[in-house]
Write a structure and sequence with these properties.
The chain has 366 residues and is α/β, with parallel strands linked by helices. It has helices spanning 7-12, 17-28, 35-48, 59-72, 90-97, 117-123, 144-152, 205-214, 236-246, 249-266, 295-304, 332-340, 352-364; strands at 52-56, 81-85, 102-106, 128-134, 156-160, 168-169, 172-173, 180-184, 198-202, 288-291, 341-344. It starts with 6 loop residues before the first helix and ends with a helix.
């Protein structure tokens, strides 16, 4: 079987470093807000190219904390609108609505599947105060036209960097391009923990200080609580694991690019559409999405040969049961993607022979 993501094997490839690190933490006897977390925050901030990194419980919390901090700082208030791609994971939108902010869905571009300046312009109202920019599939959604549009209107750019660890734009990494960025280290990410973990990066010291309090019960001094905060802290085990994995991230992203290159040059079946890549050397290919009007046939053909696939995402956020108020919205491209997208296996341990087998099966579908 070719698994979509063989987490057991991927984890084993980091041994004995992981076991040694976990043993070191147990022997030290300090499990939260300790040396490993502080070191990871410093190392990840340096890697991303930001002055500040605050480690937290997961990627959703990272997003929520950013918007909650802007509310605490008086920059955002109840009902303010936040632009967000219609084709994203629900966590992006939950972080908005759970802060009493209003999402404004923007349909993506039909080629890149990312939101561009034209889409933002058509969706923006006078109440739009922020744009949640999602670097979908590992490709950068930032460009100068989008930045200029937001800057001219005083719109905050919050990056959702959950799928784009290591992605680049003009010599800078995603996660350092906007006002703040949220990072998810869910196990399946390019930089994945062995459980939930997340982080915020920013160059805004006031924002960083506010988030640092909010994620620790609203406190930066024990038993003194300045904000109504939450408990969202990365434990020492996850921090240590992420420090180990961070050292190999660029090399593993290079392997992802090599696999993607084989897919792009090898797949020529007219029944499927390959992804458009803006800057191949900057893309980190967290997901390799194919589009097909006969998606079920593609999934079944690969499954017949014990090859796993995934669908990102089968139900658009505005059609989810929890958001009935947006069911009447029409987001044609997002809805089309939900019906046609299928993700092929792509991870650093995938062999060239396995890639060739996948390509052959996709090309044989008729």
């Amino acid at each position: 079987m070719i698994k979509y993501l063989p987490l057991k094997e991927i984890t084993a490839s980091y041994e004995p470093e992981i076991s040694d690190a976990l043993r070191r933490i147990v022997e030290r006897g300090w499990f939260l807000l300790g040396e490993e977390c502080a070191a990871f925050e410093q190392e990840y901030a340096s890697y991303i190219g930001c002055n500040h990194c605050i480690a937290c419980g997961n990627g959703y919390d990272a997003l929520w904390l950013i918007f909650r901090a802007y509310r605490a700082m008086g920059i955002l208030k109840d009902g303010d609108e936040v632009l967000v791609p219609a084709n994203t994971f629900i966590a992006s939108v939950l972080a908005i609505t759970n802060n009493n902010l209003t999402p404004v869905f923007v349909d993506p571009d039909s080629n890149s599947y990312l939101v561009g300046e034209e889409g933002l312009r058509s969706a923006t109202t006078s109440r739009c105060k922020a744009y949640l920019m999602v670097h979908l599939y590992g490709q950068c959604a930032y460009n100068s036209a989008v930045a200029d549009f937001c800057n001219e209107r005083g719109i905050i750019i919050v990056e959702d960097n959950a799928q784009a660890h290591g992605c680049m734009y003009d010599g800078k990494r995603t996660g350092s391009l906007g006002n703040a960025a949220a990072h998810s280290f869910y196990p399946g990410k390019n930089l994945g923990a062995l459980g939930d973990a997340g982080a915020v990066t920013t160059n805004d010291k006031k924002l960083a200080d506010t988030i640092a309090k909010l994620h620790n019960y609203g406190s930066n001094q024990k038993y003194h609580h300045e904000e109504v905060g939450v408990n969202s802290r990365m434990d020492e085990f996850q921090a240590a694991i992420l420090r180990i994995k961070l050292r190999r991230l660029d090399a593993e992203n290079n392997r992802r690019r090599a696999i993607a290159s084989q897919y792009i040059s090898g797949i020529d079946n007219p029944l499927v559409r390959l992804p458009q890549v803006r800057d191949f050397d900057a893309h980190v290919f967290h997901i390799f999405p194919l589009m097909s009007e006969c998606r079920d046939k593609v999934v079944e053909a690969l499954a017949k040969h014990d090859i796993q696939t995934q669908i990102h995402y089968p139900i658009p956020v505005h059609k989810q049961e929890c958001y009935p108020e947006w069911h009447s919205l029409s987001m044609p491209m997002a809805e089309k993607l939900s019906m046609q997208e299928v993700s092929l296996p792509l991870h650093p341990l995938l062999t060239d022979a396995e890639v060739a087998e996948i390509i052959g099966i996709v090309n044989s579908i008729g």
